[in-house]
Design a protein that fits this description.
The protein has 241 residues and is an alpha+beta fold. A hairpin with a 4-residue loop joins strand 8 and strand 9. The N terminus is likely disordered.
């Protein structure tokens, strides 16, 4: 192995992925390479997280088909990295190995200081869609509904006009609906449209509300109110601003 190739083996060595010949060669290289020794020391946190898991060869029963595919992918990635002689650490393998073998996720980034990544911003949930996240992060303005319909809007001014996220419950389909902004002069602009399936939203049997968002070219100060209407002209919700 060349010195450049050996540098790529730090992560693989820490995880026990090297075969006997490569392991011996790397250990010989390690004795004369302070950067690799320091790199290996930096991986002590990952090694600690892997206590009890051991090298891939000691994981116990043969992995399932899905696990085997992940392990094979990791090994093929390492081989490709070595052939390309990119000089990158195989540290990304740590997260994948712990995920497959023990359900523990360990994340690192090349070139970082070893610090734990900061937590997600307060109120942010990865499983939420953009409209639902915007609604959850904002201050909703409640609307007045018809026939048991409830909902509200989170509204923000933009350079191009007004952005709004809608939460709507108590509506059954099939329907086609639109969110409309109505200016103080009475002009109407459709912000977004959607179809309500027969099961509906926010009703017995389908408790989840609908979240949608859209934009109006009117500045917020020019808008009188917002409406949710069907394409047949029935008004379902009015939100005054």
């Amino acid at each position: 192995m060349t010195s450049q190739v050996e540098h790529t083996d730090v992560g693989a060595y820490a995880l026990g992925l090297l075969d006997d010949d490569d392991k011996a060669a790397f250990e010989e290289h390690l004795a004369t390479c302070p950067p690799c020794a320091a790199e290996l020391a930096d991986l002590s946190g990952v090694a600690g997280a892997l206590v009890g898991i051991g090298p891939l060869d000691d994981l116990g029963p043969p992995p399932s088909r899905g696990e085997a595919e992940v392990v094979d992918l990791m090994r093929r990635k390492r081989t490709a990295d070595r052939r390309a002689r990119r000089g990158t650490i195989v540290i990304g393998l740590a997260a994948a190995v712990t995920l497959v073998a023990g359900g523990l996720t360990v994340g690192t980034q090349l070139g970082d200081s070893g610090a734990v990544p900061p937590p997600a911003a307060a109120g942010h949930h990865d499983h939420l869609g953009p409209a639902e996240q915007f609604y959850a992060d904002g201050t909703p303005v409640a609307g007045t509904g018809a026939r048991g319909v409830t909902g509200g809007l989170v509204i923000e001014s933009k350079a191009w006009g007004t952005h709004a996220a809608l939460k709507l419950s108590g509506v059954k389909g099939p329907l086609e609906c639109e969110l409309v902004s109505v200016s103080k002069s009475g002009e109407r602009r459709v912000m977004t449209g959607w179809a309500v399936p027969a099961a509906g939203y926010g009703v017995p049997g389908q408790p989840d509300p609908l979240y949608m968002h859209g934009g109006s070219p009117y500045p917020l100060e020019q808008i009188d109110h917002f409406e949710v209407v069907t394409t047949k002209g029935e008004k379902l919700l009015t939100v005054n601003v």
